[in-house]
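PROTEIN–LIGAND DATA SHEET

This sheet pairs a single protein chain with one bound small molecule, flavin-adenine dinucleotide, given as SMILES. Inputs appear in the order they were entered. The predicted three-dimensional arrangement of chain and ligand is reported afterwards as a token string under its own label.
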Amino acid sequence: MFASLAAWLRRRQIAFSENAAIGPHLHFKIGGTVSLLVTCTSAAQLAAVMKKVIAGKLPYLVIGGGSNIAFGDGLTRIVVLQAQAAAAGSASPMRLLDSRSLEVESGARNQPFLSWCASHGAGGLEFLSGIPGTLGGAAAVNAGAFGRSMADVLLGADIIDAQGTVRAVDSGHFGFNYRDSRFKFGKDTLLSLRLKFAPASEAAISRKTRENLEYRLARHPSYRLASAGCFFKNPLLRGVKTSAGKIIEECGLKNMTAGGLAVAAEHGNFLLNRGNASFADLQRLEKEIQSAVAARTGIVLEREVIYVSPDGKKY
Ligand SMILES: Cc1cc2nc3c(=O)[nH]c(=O)nc-3n(C[C@H](O)[C@H](O)[C@H](O)COP(=O)(O)OP(=O)(O)OC[C@H]3O[C@@H](n4cnc5c(N)ncnc54)[C@H](O)[C@@H]3O)c2cc1C
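PREDICTION REPORTED AS:
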């Protein structure tokens, strides 16, 4: 099923592996194998591979940094395209459009992007500091922190849709919601994003980027530990967004475990993979936390992290 794509990739010297372990590419380190894992190092390459995949009617899924997603334990029969930014020495994945807007490729990583923003005077995007992953992943899940999210800064994007057509869309097309957009569970792929910014000095942007990172490092479990960040969405209780981590802690569930997984001692909404957790462990811990919280408080916690089914569907 994937042999002709593999031959095409080989001819073009595009990096890929067959029957690839996906876990090592994910922050949670949870997942078995996927039929084909392709690393795309630019938006142009991502679009070219995607066209070939769609023309061949192959099942596919795009990931960025893999920091908000977990795969099933067995073989997932799909092509996974991993969006990365241009390698050093190639064309820059970001550029200024005018004095208040910029364009960035979806595979660019947040932290190097913020360094570029500082040196180009593009302020107001520092909320991304410390959020792992890529700009494409951040836009797809409407990532945010410090009271701001991608929905506040996104102007539009170039996408390749599920029919293989490249087109420009505006921010309305995203259907943004709290940690959600149509791309989170959809089939369309983000190639590049147009973002607005507020002009600021390099020193001010660098300072804010550093402060935000330090704030998070002081309050979250070590970023060296395998997790996907906040596992559950913060629920809306009587109209007020309430910390899921606090609810979990108040229910006495800190340090709860299932197989190789544990609720972090430092933060009730971080589930940590202690090295050998399976997807089955993750599903079990999720259900146990949800049941315990519902029994004690009546609150239904909703998962923020994305799962991938054995046939490659996100849910
Ligand atoms: C330690 C830690 C801290 C975190 N803190 C935060 C936080 O403060 N705030 C927050 O919102 N999140 C946080 N997260 C979660 C995660 O980092 C963010 O959601 C991040 O923006 C996901 O980006 P990614 O590139 O890793 O996406 P991935 O996990 O690779 O993918 C996420 C989703 O985006 C889709 N996607 C990725 N790239 C594309 C593309 N090019 N086109 C179309 N769809 C695409 C995927 O298919 C998937 O549906 C944290 C995670 C960790 C591990």
